[in-house]
Design goal:
Blueprint: E1 6-10, H1 19-29, E2 31-36, H2 43-60, E3 63-67, H3 70-76, E4 80-83, H4 90-97, E5 102-108, H5 111-120, E6 124-127, H6 144-153, E7 158-161, H7 169-175, E8 179-182, H8 184-187, H9 192-205
Parallel strand pairs: 1-2, 1-8, 2-3, 3-4, 4-5, 5-6, 6-7, 7-8
Helix pairs in contact: 1-2, 1-9, 2-3
């Protein structure tokens, strides 16, 4: 499986059958991690889509992570889970998913939360929103300086999220981001693969 570096593509809620080919295009363009983010109340849909994505990502040797839902991650054999502030504890997720699972934690604009997450055994932490985001317009904003301070104090990978484009993403990588998490900038593109290639290229030039 891929290391925790590069373009981190997060699904935008598009239903099947369009979901899989668009995710595959993102992978072919250079995405190294895929997160299934779906807020639908339809459990059957969520299981079916997550299972299909798990198989797809495994075939491409790309890590597959489920947003918010530890039980869904376990059910479909995902590589890990991403936890927000109301999604449970890192240690409980570790017990459920096993020692090799990738567990990420949203830390918003809080270095203290990130330090605690790392202490608890998180594999990566995510900060943001760094820029205005159409996915979460009311999200708290994080300053670029937070990445620099976190890079100096944390030994685990850092993920940046929120309104990231190929034009502004480079400064986040330069500041210490190991991963750029992107939703609309990728999946709203006419050519998902080409968009992914632009984002992936930021890590080659960093």
């Amino acid at each position: 499986m891929s290391t925790l570096r590069g373009l981190y593509a997060i699904t935008d809620g598009s239903p099947a059958p369009g979901l899989l080919p668009r995710v595959e295009a993102a992978i072919q363009g250079g995405a190294r991690l895929i997160q299934y983010r779906e807020k639908s109340a339809d459990p059957a849909r969520r299981v079916a889509e997550a299972q299909a994505l798990s198989v797809l990502c495994s075939g491409h040797e790309v890590s597959f992570i489920v947003n918010d839902d530890v039980e869904l991650a376990a059910a479909v054999g995902a590589d890990g889970v991403h936890l927000g502030k109301d999604d449970g504890r890192v240690d409980a997720a570790r017990v459920r998913l096993g020692p090799r699972a990738i567990i990420g934690v949203s830390c918003y604009d809080s270095l203290e939360r990130a330090l605690q997450a790392a202490h608890d055994g998180a594999d990566y932490v995510a900060f943001g929103s760094f820029f205005a985001s159409t996915s979460k317009p009311a999200a708290v904003r994080a300053p670029l300086s937070l990445l620099k301070e976190a890079r100096a104090r944390l030994p685990i990978p850092l993920c940046a999220i929120g309104g990231i484009t190929p034009q502004n993403g480079g400064e986040l990588v330069q500041a210490g981001a190991d991963m750029l998490a992107v939703i609309q900038g990728l999946f709203s593109a006419t050519d998902v693969g080409a968009a992914a290639k632009e984002y992936a290229g930021l890590f080659k030039t960093a």
